[in-house]
Write a structure and sequence with these properties.
The structure is a homodimer of 364-residue chains. Chain A is of the alpha+beta class and 364 residues long. Helix content of chain A is 27%, strand content 28%. The first copy, chain A, has three domains: 85 residues, Rossmann fold (3-Layer(aba) Sandwich), CATH 3.40.50; 61 residues, ATP-grasp fold, A domain (Dna Ligase, domain 1); 172 residues, D-amino Acid Aminotransferase, Chain A, domain 1 (2-Layer Sandwich), CATH 3.30.470.
C-alpha cells in the first residue's frame, strides 16, 4: 500500500467521521489545495460546513460506502471506533490510511494493552474481565482504586466506572453495562503527558513537543507545552511513541497518553493510544508551523512530514458545554485564539471548541 | 450601522466573491464557529469547497441577491470591484461591511488619489486622462516614465501601460482600451512597502508589521517582514494607514501600498489602497496568532480586534501559474508552509497559491 503514488493537490480526501477532528482535518487539507468528502451518519456534522462534499449514511451502508470509495482518492478517519468491516470494505476499493491493521488493536483496550506490553513498554497493572466472576481475581492483580472500562467504544470517560476502597465491584460491572471489560489499576501518577507524532508512508516519524495534560471528569481540560518533564523522560516518551507507531505499522498522526510516576524503575507508563489526531495536539495549530491536522494529511498523502518545531509556548483549554458561551470574553483576550466547532447544540460534557493561549517560546 | 448587534458564533457570513481571498476568509470564519455563504458568478470558485452554502449568479441578479441577503447575517466581500449597485441593493437588506461608502472611492483610481491628497497624504504626481488629447498635458505633469492606468477595474497590472522615453503616448492610450484613465509618474522609489491594518466598528485600529514587497510584471512576487525601514518611517506608514481607514469610515481589513523614496521631503508616497484583505498580508497566517482573515471577520462581526504581534519573521512568495507545480519541492522544505487555492486550471499570471517561509522573530 505504501507504494501507492502520492496524493496530489486537487485530489479528494475522504474522511470518515464529521466531528471537530474531521472538520479541522478538512480545513488543513483545504490549505494544501485538497478537496474533502466527509462521510458521516449524523446530518448535523460540523465538518460538512467546510467540505466540498458529504455523504450522510450509516457506516454499514455498502452502496453508500462503494460510491464514497469511488469518489475519493484516499480515505482516512477522525476517530478509531469506525467498524472494522467498514474499513475493510473501503480498503478493497481505495487506499485507506491509517490502515485497518493499525486501527484494530486500538479499538479494543485489551488488545491495545497487550500490544504495548508485547513490545516491552510498561503499562499500569491490568486484568481482563470477561464476566462478573473475573472481577475479584482482577482486583487482586490491580489493587484498589482501579477503573473498570469496557474493552470497546469508550471515549471521554464514557464506559468507565471506578472501584474504590469499600465499593462493591459488581456495582461497577453493572454501571458499564456488563460488557467485556478490562480492569486497570489507578496508579498514583505525578502528572499526565502525551506524545503526538506522525509516521509517514516510508516509516519516518516526527514528534511534536511532549504535552502536559490535565483531565477533569475523564475529559481533557488543558494541555500545556512545554511539559514539566526532565530531558531523559522526554526522550523516553518520544521513543515510546515511535516504537508504538512502528509496531502498528501506522501511517498518519498517533497520540500516546502516558502517566509520569514520581519514582520507580518505570517512570513512564502508557495509559492509552489514539491512532488519529488528538485533542492534546490542538495546540499545534497556533504553536507550530505545521499543525497535527496538516501533518496527518501529509502523512497519509505520501508527502514528507512537516516541521514540528514549536515557535511559541502554548496552553490549550477545551471549551466544554457552556464554556463556549464565554466566547466574547475570549476574543477580547490578548494572546488567545478561539476555535469553535460550529456545533449548534451545547450539552454538558460536549466539546464545543478550544482556546490556544500562546506566549514567546521558552527554553528548549 | 455600527450600532448593530455583533455577529455571534453559529451565524452566517455572506461573502461576495469566491476567489482565494474569499476562500481564506471562509476558512478563518469557520475556525471562529461561523458558517459561510459564498456568492460568486463563477461556477468554479475555489471558495465554494470550504463554505457551507453557495449562490452562483451574476452580481446584478436581484432575485438571487435578495435571497442571499435573506439567508445571511452579514455581508462582506473579497475584492473591491463589486458593482456599487450590488452593494447598495444588499445594504438595504442586511449589514454590509465594509460599507459601500468605504468601497466606492477605491473603485476609481482618480477618486482614490483625490481622497488621499485631500487628507494631506502625499502621492506620486498624477493627472486624469479623460480623452486622448489629455495625455500630453498629463505627461507634462508627471514626466516620463509614467504609467497610464484605467480608472476602474484594474488589478495585478491589468489595464496598465507604461509610457517611457520615446514611446508614443497614443499607443498606451490604445493599449488600455481608451477608457477613462489616470497617468501616474513612475517615481524612482527605493523600495515598496505596505501596511495591512484593520479598523473595528468602534473605530479602533490595529496594524500588522510593515511589509516589504517586490513586484514582478505588475504582480506581487514576495512580501518580507520585518521590512527594511527606519523606525520613524515605520511609524509614519502606520499613521498613514490609520488616517486613510478613518477617512473612509472603513470597517474591516485595509491595505495601503507605499513607495519609499531614497530622499526628499516626503519619503513615503501612497501608491494604492485595497479596502480588503490583501496579498501582502498573507504572511500573517503563519507569522501572527490572528491572521488578516480572522482579523477581517472580527472587525466586521463587531468583535474586538485580535493580536497583530509577529511571533515569527516571514517571507511570503506567491505561486503564480506554473510555480505551483513545484508543490512537492516546497512541502519537503523545512520552515515552509504551502497554501494552495484549489484552482483546477493554471494559467500564466494566475495566482495559484503562496508559500510562507518563517524563521524565529528578529529584532523589534
Amino acid at each position: 500500500m505504501n507504494d501507492e503514488p502520492p496524493v496530489k493537490p486537487g485530489m479528494i480526501v475522504g474522511i470518515l467521521g464529521g466531528g471537530q477532528l474531521g472538520r479541522m482535518l478538512a480545513l488543513a487539507a483545504a490549505e494544501l489545495g485538497l478537496s474533502c468528502h466527509i462521510y458521516c451518519p449524523d446530518q448535523k456534522s460540523p465538518a460538512f460546513a467546510v467540505a466540498a462534499s458529504r455523504t450522510i449514511a450509516p457506516y454499514d451502508d455498502q452502496a453508500a460506502l462503494a460510491a464514497f470509495a469511488e469518489s475519493v482518492d484516499i480515505v482516512t478517519f477522525e476517530f478509531e471506533n469506525i467498524p472494522t468491516e467498514t474499513l475493510r470494505f473501503l480498503a478493497e476499493r481505495v487506499t485507506v490510511l491509517p490502515g485497518p491493521a493499525s486501527l484494530e488493536p486500538t479499538q479494543d483496550r485489551l488488545s491495545e494493552k497487550q500490544l504495548i506490553v508485547d513490545i516491552g513498554i510498561p503499562v499500569p497493572p491490568f486484568a481482563p474481565v470477561a464476566e462478573q466472576a473475573d472481577i475479584y481475581s482482577a482486583l487482586a492483580r490491580t489493587g484498589r482504586p482501579a477503573v473498570l472500562k469496557t474493552r470497546r467504544f469508550g471515549y471521554d470517560g464514557k464506559g468507565q466506572a471506578a472501584i474504590r476502597a469499600g465499593d462493591d465491584p459488581v456495582g461497577a460491572w453493572r454501571a458499564i453495562g456488563q460488557a467485556p471489560a478490562i480492569l486497570e489499576a489507578h496508579v498514583p501518577f505525578a502528572r499526565e503527558v502525551s506524545v503526538v507524532l506522525a509516521r509517514a508512508r516510508d516509516g519516518t516519524t516526527r514528534a511534536y513537543d511532549v504535552v502536559e495534560n490535565v483531565h477533569k471528569d475523564g475529559i481533557l481540560a488543558t494541555s500545556t507545552v512545554p511539559a514539566n518533564l526532565a530531558p531523559d523522560l522526554t526522550k523516553q516518551a518520544m521513543d515510546i511513541g515511535e516504537r508504538i507507531a512502528a509496531a502498528l505499522g501506522h501511517v498518519g498522526v498517533l497520540a500516546v497518553e502516558l502517566f509520569v510516576m514520581e519514582r520507580g524503575a518505570d517512570r513512564l507508563l502508557v495509559n492509552e493510544i489514539a491512532p488519529r489526531v488528538h485533542n492534546s495536539g490542538h495546540w499545534t495549530t497556533d504553536g507550530c508551523l505545521c499543525s497535527q491536522f496538516e501533518q496527518h494529511i501529509r502523512a497519509i498523502a505520501g508527502w514528507p512530514l512537516g516541521d514540528t518545531a514549536r515557535h511559541s509556548d502554548a496552553v490549550m483549554t477545551n471549551l466544554i458545554g457552556d464554556d463556549a458561551s464565554r466566547w466574547q470574553e475570549i476574543v477580547g483576550e490578548s494572546g488567545a485564539r478561539l476555535h469553535l466547532y460550529g456545533k449548534a447544540e451545547s450539552r454538558p460534557g460536549r466539546k464545543m471548541g478550544h482556546v490556544n493561549r500562546i506566549s514567546p517560546r521558552s527554553g528548549p
